[in-house]
Specification:
Helix content is 30%, strand content 16%. Strands 7-6-16-17-18-15-19 form a 7-stranded mixed sheet. A 4-stranded parallel sheet has the order 2-1-12-21, covered by helices on one side. A 4-stranded mixed sheet has the order 11-10-9-13, with no helix packed on it. Helix 3 packs parallel to helix 17, helix 5 crosses helix 9 and helix 13 crosses helix 16. About 1% of the residues have low confidence.
């Protein structure tokens, strides 16, 4: 459970190149693009100061706006709720400000190298996240079917768990050329990546995750499949992903997105907030000291968008919740795409009909969390009878599913994520209030830890979220079902607008659900950079020849195109 990758790769030569979310669908080096001294491109001086609407103030919207501002354009950001999107960090009423809960993204893999560029840019620190059986996690309890197992390393678990881990490794090797693809991604061997992935996309697009397991000789045992679904290897159980396309899972494991996670000290929402306020040292047109915040009256984004439509001259006209109507030559839409179907009044002419179909077919995962503040990390106390930690990071088939213990030192107040659930498990919580949820969770955990009184350590009210019930999100993130590859390709490649009819250009899709790595902040960053390139190109700009952008090399690395007839 410390890694989703087979042992052959996990314990390979430490001198091998670090893995990055480099493909496999679009193997473009976003980290190199960001690091290059030539910058991301320029637009003609005659276009400096031109306004561009950016709908959504999550990470993707803020990154796109920040980079367009540096080029000399004027982003106008619209945000219905708060800067940050699903990078949402909240406090506990009446508690010390240092106690926070990550309601959305809370753990980030080192392979998120474009994301790391911005984390470093705004001087944020990270630290290891206490996933099950991670090196920095003191202990883990796996509780299935009423039987609990305490482990500090995977070797402390019964043999069946190691058998399941081995089965997963063999399944990936036999069915998905894991080691070969992982090596090609590390070495950024684009021809080899494309060769392997082209074959697998054609072979596996119609296959579910569960079907992929069932087709493997390594997982012929139902018991092994059940344990794998409930406990998993990496961050926890995989069963909520079983109906999804196996291609979604392969993207995660190839790039080790589920491994070696780190959390952002002080909360992930600091990243978009600091970018919002940051004054770039290198900026065109605008005076030194300009920030996204300073470009917006009162330092606040425009309110929610209520209507998007095309007007004469192929302009994009935006109506907001205040009734204000503004027209732009270009716009970037970074909110979750279902908003275009329900919350925002849209013209059909905004996108080609096949793109509307892809938006309508987008499949979102539900997700719920509940956190409580506690007086101290009491779980580090030792049980006098066993010598073990009195409580551990917990994986279970009970209602809580995943319980995470988060502290900042032995003598400081701490936080427990009592429950982190997905899909059907999340829907079970939906009708319950935060306090009702907490009561059910405490009961479940008392059955695992009968001698631990969690309640006496709680020092504040619980905070909770069900992302499927959030009106501006309607789900946690996109997860393609079998047969959805073609839809995803349409959405991801939307930034290449020279291929679209002239009357369908000018509005660009971005956000993690447009990316190939939905659910990871890296996908939000990558699609933001795609959209920024698209807007630059739309205004007649270009990148430096020494640092070609994603659109410049698109024809060489374009995602596999499956036939539609």
């Amino acid at each position: 459970m410390t890694s989703t990758v087979p042992n052959a790769v996990e314990h390979a030569d430490e001198q091998q190149p670090p893995i990055t979310m480099f493909g496999p669908d679009f193997p473009y080096a976003y980290d190199d693009f960001l690091a290059h001294p030539a910058g991301l491109g320029q637009i003609p001086a005659t276009e400096h100061g031109a306004e561009v609407a950016v709908v959504g103030g999550g990470l993707s919207g803020v990154v796109a706006a920040y980079e367009l501002m540096k080029m000399g354009l004027k982003p106008v950001v619209y945000e219905a709720d708060r800067i940050g999107g699903r990078l949402r960090t909240v406090g506990f009423e009446g508690c010390d400000e240092s106690l926070t809960a990550e309601m959305g993204a809370m753990r980030f893999p080192p392979s998120s190298t474009a994301l790391q560029h911005y984390i470093d840019l705004v001087d944020l620190r990270t630290r290891p996240f206490p996933n099950p059986l991670a090196e920095t996690t003191p202990s883990t309890v796996v509780d299935l079917k009423g039987e609990s197992h305490y482990a500090e390393t995977v070797d402390d678990l019964p043999q069946v768990y190691r058998d399941v881990a081995d089965a997963w490794g063999r399944c990936l090797e036999e069915g998905a050329d894991f080691s070969d693809m992982n090596r090609a991604l590390r070495e950024r061997d684009v021809p080899r990546i494309r060769e392997i992935w082209s074959r697998l996309v054609e072979k596996l697009d119609n296959q579910t995750f569960y079907g992929f397991l069932c087709d493997s000789e390594a997982f012929r045992s139902f018991r092994h499949r059940e344990i794998f679904g409930q406990v998993g290897f990496g961050t926890g159980g995989w069963d909520t992903d079983f109906p999804n396309s196996i291609l979604e899972i392969l993207r995660v494991v190839y790039t080790e997105a589920d491994d070696h996670h780190r959390g952002i000290v002080g909360g992930s929402q600091q990243l978009p907030l600091r970018l919002w306020e940051r004054e770039p040292e290198k900026i065109v047109h605008w005076p030194y000291g300009t920030s996204l915040k300073s470009l917006h009256p009162g330092g606040e984004p425009r309110p929610a968008v209520t209507r998007l439509h095309r007007t004469a001259g192929n302009r994009i006209t935006v109506t907001d919740a205040d009734g204000d109507i503004r027209t732009y030559r270009a716009a970037i839409f970074t909110a979750q795409s279902w908003m275009l179907l329900s919350k925002i009044q849209c013209d059909d002419e905004l996108f080609p009909i096949d793109h509307w179909t892809a938006i309508e077919r987008t499949h979102y995962m539900e997700s719920s969390k509940l956190f409580v503040p506690v007086d101290r990390p009491f779980w580090l106390d030792k049980d006098e009878a066993t010598g073990r930690d009195v409580m551990s990071m917990t994986l279970t088939d009970r209602m809580t599913r995943g319980t995470y213990l988060l502290d900042d030192g032995p003598d400081k107040p701490a936080v427990i994520c009592l429950s982190y659930t997905w899909c059907d498990d999340s829907l079970k919580w939906l009708p319950l209030s935060a306090n009702e949820r907490m009561e059910v969770m405490l009961k479940s955990l008392s059955e695992i830890y009968p001698r631990v009184d969690i309640r006496k350590h709680i020092i504040g009210n619980p905070v909770t979220v069900s992302w499927e019930n959030e009106p501006y999100f309607m789900g946690a993130f996109k997860a393609n079902l079998p047969g959805h590859y073609r839809y995803q390709r349409r959405l991801f490649t939307h930034f290449m607008q020279d291929r679209l009819p002239a009357d369908k250009r000018g509005i660009f899709l971005a956000g993690d659900d447009i990316s190939w790595t939905a659910g990871w902040a890296e996908g939000a960053v990558q699609t933001a950079l795609n959209a920024a390139w698209g807007v630059m190109h739309h205004f007649g700009g270009a990148t430096d020849a020494a640092n070609p952008g994603p659109g410049d090399v698109y024809d060489e690395i374009a995602p596999v195109e499956l036939p539609e007839d």
